[in-house]
Write a structure and sequence with these properties.
Layout: E1 2-8, H1 13-27, E2 31-36, E3 48-56, E4 59-60, H2 62-70, H3 72-76, E5 80-85, H4 103-110, E6 115-119, E7 122-123, H5 130-137, H6 141-144, E8 148-149, H7 153-168
Parallel strand pairs: 1-2, 1-3, 3-5, 5-6
Antiparallel strand pairs: 3-4, 7-8
Helix pairs in contact: 1-7
């Protein structure tokens, strides 16, 4: 079984999750590689796909959404899992339906993913672009974009392990 983990990441947090998922799949005996959506990988060359995107303003990054839409026919014909990264609200639950990006309901209809999971993200102010640095200077900006790494690696590892078990089941 050969799997591609495709990701769209603005500041590196989602890339880190994708690479971690690919590593955990390999540890479970599944051939896997993580590739940026910018490389425009061909999902038709793989038996399964895991696709993730950073989330901003309740939406996946445009390039990730476009990748799914452009490859919807191929993706609908193989096992696919989706993940979203980005909420920085440690007081909330990643299972809160309010955190689900707007595109996910559309993707459920067209590619029928096995699962969608939301993972908390990470924010390093030194890596922010101009607009996000400016937003953090506003009074509510620091609360909206708190500094820190909120990714739960145990949850991500358990999710990747579940994917590997499904893929290895005849």
């Amino acid at each position: 079984m050969n799997v591609i983990v495709v990701y769209a990441s603005r500041y590196g947090s989602t890339k880190g999750i994708a690479e971690f998922i690919a590593e955990k799949l390999r540890e479970h005996g599944v051939q896997a590689e993580a590739r940026s959506v910018d490389a425009d990988p061909d999902p038709g060359e793989y038996n399964a796909a895991v696709i993730g995107s950073a989330v901003y303003m309740e939406h996946w990054m445009q390039e990730a959404a476009d990748f799914v839409r452009r490859n919807r026919t191929v993706l609908a014909g193989r096992p696919v899992w989706l993940f979203s990264s980005g909420p920085l609200e440690p007081g909330t639950s990643p299972d809160d339906p309010e955190l689900e990006p707007k595109e996910i309901s559309e993707f459920r209809e067209v590619i029928h993913p096995r699962d969608h999971r939301v993972f908390f993200g990470a924010l390093d102010p030194g890596r922010l672009g101009f607009a996000h640095r400016t937003l953090r200077k506003l009074p509510a900006g620091r609360a909206l974009l708190p500094e820190g790494d909120f990714r739960n690696w145990d949850d991500i590892e358990a999710w990747a392990g579940g994917i590997a078990r499904v893929l290895k089941t005849p």
